[in-house]
Amino acid sequence: MSAVTSMPPVAPQERGRTAEQATRLAVLWVPDWPVVAAVSEGLAEAHLPVALHDGRGLVAVSAQARAEGVRRGMRRRTAQGVCPELVLVAADEGRDVRAFEPVMQALEEVAPDVLLLRPGVAVLPARGPVRYLGSEAALAESLVGAAAEVGAEAQVGLADGVLAAMLAAREQVHVPPGRSAEFLARRDVRDLVHVTTTRDSRARLVELVDLFRRLGLATLGDVARLRPAHVGPRFGALGLQAHRLAQGLDAQPPQVRRAEPDITVQADLDPPAHRVDAAAFAARRLAEELQTSMLRRGVVCARLRVHARTEDGGSLERSWRLDGGALTAAELTDRVRWQLEGWLSGRNGQRPSAPLTFLELAAEEVSPAAAVSDGLWGRHGRGQAQAGRAALRVQGLIGADAVLAPVLQGGRSPRDRVRLVAWGDEPVALRDPRAPWPGQIPSPLPATVPATPVPARVLDDDGTPVVVADRGVLHGMPARVEVHRRRYEVTGWAGPWPVHERWWAGGRPRTYVQVVCGEIALLLAGEGDSWWVEGVYD
Asked: CA-to-CA distance for 27 and 136, rounded, in angstroms?
């Protein structure tokens, strides 16, 4: 167990530089938590280099992999070229939450009001526990010891404000009161992303950080020295939030009026839920109701509390800290579902003693959403919101994988350029659609792409099948197309466009041809004397 080091004490005259005092926080951070969670579930060996990927690149890397030169953000193939022994595991936020639940329960034995910022990171107000334990060093040692008892090697940092506390935990230091701005001043402005809790908020903050750097604001001190009157009009509400964080303050200013009342939704589970899928279905309805209530009142929340009761009177509760954005119903549902998985999986040793009979969601630390609401052109219409709720209900009835949404991505054929994801999941493209794709089928793209290619025959004027040679050259001119025993006369055609992908893995060359047959137009793909309908044009 490592002790927390301290910065030099602050001089008395320096304490009064700012009238506002940020909340004193303690942050517990477990390095490389997604890797630790994967190892704990037996998906990788602890002594091997391990990396987690989300289909686009690496999102977490173990210390052994970093020693071999593997870094976050790398492509999987690049990382495997750097470290051939690298073990790749698919990222799973639900797994990360389930594995972190024992740590959260251990921390609650030390101090109350522990908030889950994201899996691997917990935050709590420090003043109350410090008065009870006697010192901040004692609090840090107690938190590290509690995490160690459940097998997690953690670091703790203390500072004023969430950003300073987060970075202090990464260095395992104790920043004296009033010194957070000095502690942050020389740090890279990219460190702002450490306070985000969702992928959407991280992406928006990354864009803001890139803008800061293009403007010559390379450090947090540079951002902190800006005048608030200049930050708001130029960078908006997110810029003002980043400006406060860079000063070592809380993300939101203190409320000078009565706080908004909490919003609570609840439901009785009948029959009682002893499986994750049954509880998650009820949680989805509640999350949708909670988000609708917040939209109707025009507010957002900084904390989400999940409370459940069991059939024998037991009680389970967990609070999530949010980074101030307006979460969608899907994002709220994800957090509740992950929490229920952590409780119901039983891997934390404190599985509910009976099925769940009651579930309650509460939006706490509620504030007006004027500063974070969607813009005029980004607001979802009523019809779109109703369609989303209907899709969620259908998904709950027939299964998560039965309701899909298309996502545009990179590729050469129309089939490769669309990815289907389950409704409610993050619509992420696996391949960059803006990247160059030599040999891509030219526009316009077909309006309809069959779920599976439809077999077809392509004949020339003599009724001889048109054959695709090795180099994509056609032997014969398309004159007729037969699909489902129906014959279409070809009145015009374009192509061919030969495509040979993944030749190193045994992929065969394929040639695409556009044909016009009276009132319909088809996109055909051929290999040898075999043809398929890949798309139908309007």
From this structure: 12
